[in-house]
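Reminder to self: keep the SMILES exactly as supplied, no canonicalising. Ligand is adenosine-5'-triphosphate.
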Amino acid sequence: MAIDILMSNEKVSPARAVAAASAISCAKLSKSFGGLHALRDVTFQIAPGEILGILGPNGAGKTTFINVLSGMLHADSGTVHIYDDDVSAMSMAHRARYGLFRTFQNSRSSEELTGYELLRLASLTPNKTKSSKTYTPDELLEIFGLKRFAGIILSDLPYGIQKMMNLAAVALCRPKVLLLDEPFQGVAEAEIERLSKVIRHFASEGVAVGLVEHNVRSVMRLCNRVIVLDAGAMIFEGRGEDAVRDPVVQTAYLGQRFAGELNG
Ligand SMILES: Nc1ncnc2c1ncn2[C@@H]1O[C@H](COP(=O)(O)OP(=O)(O)OP(=O)(O)O)[C@@H](O)[C@H]1O
Ligand SMILES: [Mg+2]
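Structure tokens returned for the bound complex:
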């Protein structure tokens, strides 16, 4: 689809060409809550198969960014494209049909469902884009190493396992773009390793991943490229190792755990 657009004789505007070459792209995205500018003119793209790290201190606007990209909140201005489709005016459910899925920062389960039942439900999700690989719930449980937990009610599972089960359910929806809001928070070290492998697995199949995380070490391991938000604005885009040496980024994080995590 992207290639069709880039190779056709039809004149393509530069903004549309960038959108088409990316799995997800946004241009000049802004969102305010009253007088608070939570997101200011953010422009970025994620390529198919790329894992992009999204960093920033507490309150920087990372969750707002995911909320606006996924359609949970509508932006005040700016555009969002999934491949060459403009989804800016679409609801979250409608964007999901284009292959855009997200997970939540605090996703403790309250449903009286077992993991297996959750995955069966997720496998029924309609999706306009059928090109990404389709898995059965059993295959996904195997990939995530969750088989032994599948028959247990979600709310009875440890928090880290609940988060992995939710991510497995999202993976069943054949995502083309996955936006993950702090997937490692509250997850044990061994499970972080397993989760990282799963994220790499989906990226290797062409899924574009946006990874919001405070666990900088894991971001460095998984991502070639990161962006850094501060007070709603993008203050850095580039390689993770350059981000941590950047004086503007260091100032934004001053007093936070960032430097300690990297040096510790
Ligand atoms: N629904 C809302 N109504 C009013 N203000 C909000 C709302 N959602 C977020 N904010 C404010 O917008 C700013 C950005 O919040 P956001 O949750 O996006 O930050 P974050 O980078 O995800 O932070 P954290 O690392 O703590 O998760 C904060 O000042 C927050 O208080
Ligand atoms: Mg957040």
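Points to follow up:
The beta strands are 24-33, 36-46, 51-55, 77-82, 85-86, 100-102, 177-181, 208-212, 225-230, 233-239.
The chain has one domain: 2-263.
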